[in-house]
Protein 1
Amino acid sequence: MNTKRLIIGSLVGLVSLYITGYLIWEVIFAEFFAANSGSATGVDRDPQVIWAIALGSLFYGALLTLALESRSGSTSTVDALKVGAVVGFLLWGTADFILYGYTNLNNLTAAIADTVLEGVRGGICGAIIAIVLSKTGD
């Protein structure tokens, strides 16, 4: 892998992760997660700190790109979807269950649902990154 591919994959990841994250948590499942929040109150930011969300998405995109590019041979879109799903599931399963153990931000139902949805999100974005990187020709 070269630096150009890492930068392109990270930027594609930033955009695709931001959009899919917005759709999943702010549109489709907003009511579900509101109903399954923990006892902690006043933890949501209003307004959100967009630069921090974007930076986190960039890091997540870089992680997905590194996972995809570390595989030997070319990565098909289906393989990228699988790798992205595993990375997203493991990454957010780690975060969700540690946070569940330490905080009252979410209940167990939300921790499980978030982990599964992050697997879906990681898979979608991994596939998008792979498609774009296949077009770069490097």
Note: The chain has a mean pLDDT of 93.
Protein 2
Amino acid sequence: MAQLALDLQFRPALGRSDFVVSDSNRDAVAWLDRWPDWPGQVLAIHGPTGCGKTHLAHVWQTRSQASFVTEIDAGTLQPGAAVILDEPSLWSSDADAARARQTALFHFLNRLRELRGSLLLLHREAPARWPVSLPDLASRLAAIPAIAVAPPDDTLLAAVLTKHFADRQLAVGDEVIDFLVRHIERDFAVAAATVAAIDQAALSSRRRITLQLVRQVVLQPQAE
């Protein structure tokens, strides 16, 4: 009988010491290390979902005491504030609502500069590519330094996989990591989902995580 695998939540490690620097993210790390010497006091990091943007933001948060902000409201900013905006919502099928959101961000950026604060923007696309309709905001966004986090190389993908297993308090052999690097898509979100699927399979079958189990999890969907 298969064991019922509980959907347990786990807390990922987000410290500087467990963030692996490789060619994929080296530029982003270097720019974060330059803080507070950012042009215009704003930096954007962009890349695909799961590429490590949030991890980088948490590393910077520890250093700068920054706060993650969900509401773009210039009135809430404090002098010298350091803030993080993750995927700000600036678009809407309602043109008036979209313009209101974009106007709010424009005032937010202006107020932040007046208060000599710092802003880290996280998004899938560089701000200069955001389809905003407000010309003043478009000009401001185009001037923000935007650093891409590239798809992972072998070294980084292996490190990310190892980290996801470790975050779940799972120890696996090098042969498991090597196999996954060679067989899964080079995508951080896929890496996270694959580790979750392997953990689930091990729990439900009451088996250790071996290369045989990993092969079944990764290759079985391709055989169907």
Note: The first helix runs from residue 26 to 34.
Protein 3
Amino acid sequence: MLQRLKNQLGSIVDWFTKSAAGAGSHVAEVAKNGTQRARTGFRAARGGLAVLGILGAGGYVIYLYPPVKAVGRGDVGVRTSRLSGEVTEWRDGSVFVMPGVHDWRIFSLRDQTYRPASSTRADGPSPFQSVEGLSLGVDLSVRYALDPAKLRAISASLPENIGGDIVEPAVQSVIYKIFARYTVREIFSTKRAEIQQSIENELKARLAADGVALRGVLIGKVDLPADYRRGMESLLAEELATEKMRYTLELKDRRVKETALDGEADKVRREKAAEAAAREQVIAAKAQEEAMKHVLPFKQRQVEQRQLEAEADKVARIRISEGSAQARRIEANGEADARQRLAEAEVYRLEKVGKANAEQMAREGALITSHPLLIQKALADKLSDKVQVIIAPPPADGGFIGANLIGAASAKSGH
């Protein structure tokens, strides 16, 4: 056990010496000169100076290669012990790595994509070959990532460039072989999904052996040879024309069948409608017959009721006529009585008025006889609204001033 520790310590010292020599040659030169001087003059202090030189070189190496390593997100660090061979994994943090004691590597667990760019064009440097021997390009994408479950076991054997040393050769060996099994037409149109599944199945097993997990394979654009593309376009045009004609004929056939079915349906619909109409007529006739059984007595009762109503109306009209005649007679008698009473009242009124007028005239005659000038006043009052001024000479005998106007003088002369 002691011998083993001495051997490991010697390996550490050698590693520090080599590191110091490679990192800083001037430190090694100083140590070498010190060692020579110690051999010539200071043999007793040789061991202490050697230790000091080793410690100085070790400090310089630690300065150049710090023992604390950081692990970023999405990465995993693998630390391998040279003493015991123990392998440990570290994620998202800082790890102590002793130079000369531990081996340290960082692996990315993120998904990565490999695309064979030289095989994307038919006229490119590395096109694919179909079963007919034609060259074609395929835009292929392979997505992969390291398998964390296997990383501890295979970390020591993994190369530095995993994509270039493991994934790329595996993909190249699989895809060329699989594309060579199919024709250009199958690769371009009919067997794309089958080809993609075949590549995934075969490539997954091959990459899994190296600790790489296959996430998926995508087949994009297929670049066909120019001559084949022109021939395929013409062929596709003819096929499209043929398909169009076939669809047109099928459509016309369906239209003919649809027309025939519509005719049959219309015929059946008419027959059903006629049957339904006939049934409706029969049902209506039966219903009418049943209704007449109830309608005829009702009609008869209506006729009888109308006769009774006519008799009642006749009697009512006779009674109304008799009442009207009687009322007219009563009105005539009343009107005759009223007229007679009016006549009697008029006679009585005239009699009373005549008596009053006679008495009035008697009183006025007596008054005029007593006062003859009242005649002049009355005449003036009568003519006041028609004649403004009357100029007449007074009579010589002192008589009425208007005697000349009314012809009183003529009357006297006549007498």
Note: The chain has eleven helices and nine strands.
Protein 4
Amino acid sequence: MKKTFPLHVPGKEDVRVVEAIKVTVAKYVKRERRKTLPEGVDFWDFCCKVGADCGTAADTHLTAVSKAIDEAGAAGAAEVYLEVMACPGHRAKKPPYQQEET
């Protein structure tokens, strides 16, 4: 999903508009996670960017997208650009546990 959301909508409070944007992102993530995984993929990972526009969008972890939207709203920006793309994720194996010899 690549989309620019307005933060100021006539007839609606800005706080409600920000919450609606967060709900839209959550719906998209939930919908993408329901898709079947390709062969050899462990989970759906998400590559996210958030910013005032496409050129200034910074890479953000999925868990920090909500906070970035809040910050854009608090900064008084007119709109916020969101890019949330699903990509295949692979779990890294942990090294085997080894006891220390004393």
Note: The chain has two helices and four strands.
